[in-house]
Design a protein that fits this description.
With 411 residues, this protein is of the alpha+beta class. It has helices at 3-15, 18-56, 81-90, 126-130, 142-146, 156-162, 206-213, 234-248, 264-307, 309-317, 322-362, 374-400, 404-409, and strands spanning 60-65, 94-103, 107-109, 112-114, 118-122, 134-137, 151-154, 172-175, 178-186, 201-205, 223-228, 259-263. Strands 1, 2, 3, 4, 5, 6, 7, 8, 9, 10, 11 and 12 form a twelve-stranded mixed beta sheet that branches. Strand 3 (107-109) and strand 4 (112-114) form a beta hairpin.
Length: 411
């Protein structure tokens, strides 16, 4: 008997009991749908985390001051602007570096005012490190930083709050009663992963913030962002920064550094590992229902063998071989599992898309990307076929081992 005939006989037998066949595949449908949805949602979460770190900038390394235990009395651990300049010039694996100095205050233009989420003093390479473009005008220069010029660049949210449809280039805003000329407008960046508006920002030369807003003559900075020349060079850049600052700060062997260097790629990798582990765990839990579905298929196939014992005897009597009987019942169980798997994949994809849309609707943060895990769908279909073969083999083998005489006498 050929495969096509066997398939036709198997599907005809299943069609005689549509309700029972539908209930049999329900467990497989639920299991495959759950696995597909969980893997897709987990992949979406991983993409969200990776995208957020990419949004921070290009191959970014964060350098920050750190308090040292056992530091000598009167010693204040600092990270200075000259340190950041040295990192940009003396570290071969570093593409660009920018210091950041934080500030706070209201921004006033005419009768309008607002309090930006971020009011920062930064370096001339800030846009290159953050991978951020200008929408209008230009960014301030090294000359502006050196002369502590009162210039600034604003984000899109500041433009909407203070200027509406007016072109802000060349206009002056007041921060702590000090006028700052707007020389540029940043392109839209959007919200970050926790919903903070990254466009609600005013950027100024860091020297201007220190001297004019903080009234300080110190050269220290709050934090620095460093961009490596390539992702594969981030480890080398981190080592070069560490060695350079150890030397510049005269930190001996065994002494605790007064700075910290954090590789955002490693942090992103750690987050991705966590999301991947959670996805695997959820998919494994969901996969238990596949086993339950497989047991259901085995039970129904055993019942089917018992009900069709006389039919099996007649087929053997007219020439069907044991292998033909084995193949027929295996095909029946595979049809049940594959059909259930296909329905489950469709429901799983639809469920993951619906759940992602629902999350984006209620969440104020960055939208979760809609990710359809094709490999999970294909793997689920293959696994459902394996479930059909694995759990259908024993009933099929039992049917093929029936004695034709005893089968014909069965009532």
């Amino acid at each position: 008997m050929n495969i096509s005939s066997t398939f036709r006989i198997a599907t005809r037998a299943l069609a005689k009991n549509k309700l029972r066949a539908g209930l049999t595949i329900l467990g497989v449908v639920i299991g495959i749908a759950a696995v597909t949805a969980m893997v897709s949602i987990g992949t979406s979460a991983s993409e969200l985390v990776q995208g957020e770190f990419r949004n921070l900038g290009t191959n970014v390394i964060v350098v920050a001051p750190a308090n040292r235990r056992g530091a000598r009395q009167g010693q204040t651990p600092t990270l200075t602007a000259s340190d950041i300049a040295a990192i940009g010039k003396e570290c071969p694996s570093v593409l660009a570096a920018t210091p950041i100095v934080g500030a706070a205050g209201q921004v006033i233009y005419g009768n309008n005012n607002c309090r930006p989420r971020e009011l920062q003093g930064v370096g001339a390479d800030y846009l290159q490190v953050r991978n951020w473009d200008m929408r209008l005008g230009d960014f301030f220069t090294e000359s502006d930083i050196k002369n502590s010029n009162k210039v600034c660049v604003v984000g899109q949210t500041i433009v909407k709050k203070l200027f509406q449809t007016t072109n802000p280039i060349g206009k002056s805003i007041r921060i702590k009663n000090i006028p700052f000329e707007i020389v540029g407008v940043l392109s839209t960046k959007g919200a970050n992963i926790v919903g903070d508006d990254q466009d609600d920002v005013v950027l100024m030369p860091y020297a201007t913030v220190r001297k004019r807003l903080q009234g300080s003559n110190f050269n220290n900075v709050d934090v620095a962002l460093v961009s490596a020349r390539a992702t594969e060079l981030m480890g080398s850049a981190e080592q070069e920064i560490d060695a350079l600052l150890m030397d510049r700060h005269r930190i001996g062997i065994g002494e605790q550094p007064d700075f910290e260097v954090a590789n955002t790629t490693e942090i992103a990798g750690a987050f991705s590992l966590v999301t991947a582990t959670l996805t695997l765990m959820l998919a494994s839990i969901a996969g238990i229902s596949l086993v339950v579905g497989g047991v259901g298929i085995m039970n129904i196939m055993l019942v089917s063998v018992t009900e069709r014992t006389r039919e099996i005897g007649i087929r053997m009597a007219v020439g069907a071989r044991p292998n033909d009987i084995l193949l027929q019942f295996l095909v029946e169980s595979m049809v049940l599992s594959v059909v259930g798997g296909a329905i489950g994949v469709i429901l799983g994809i639809g469920g993951s898309v619906s759940l992602t849309v629902a999350i984006n609707t209620v969440s104020s943060g960055r939208d979760w990307p809609i990710v359809i895990s094709h490999w999970a769908a294909i793997a689920s279909l293959l696994f459902s076929a394996a479930v059909g073969i694995g759990f259908g083999f024993y009933p099929a083998w039992r049917a093929s081992r029936l004695d034709p005489i005893d089968a014909l006498r069965y009532e």
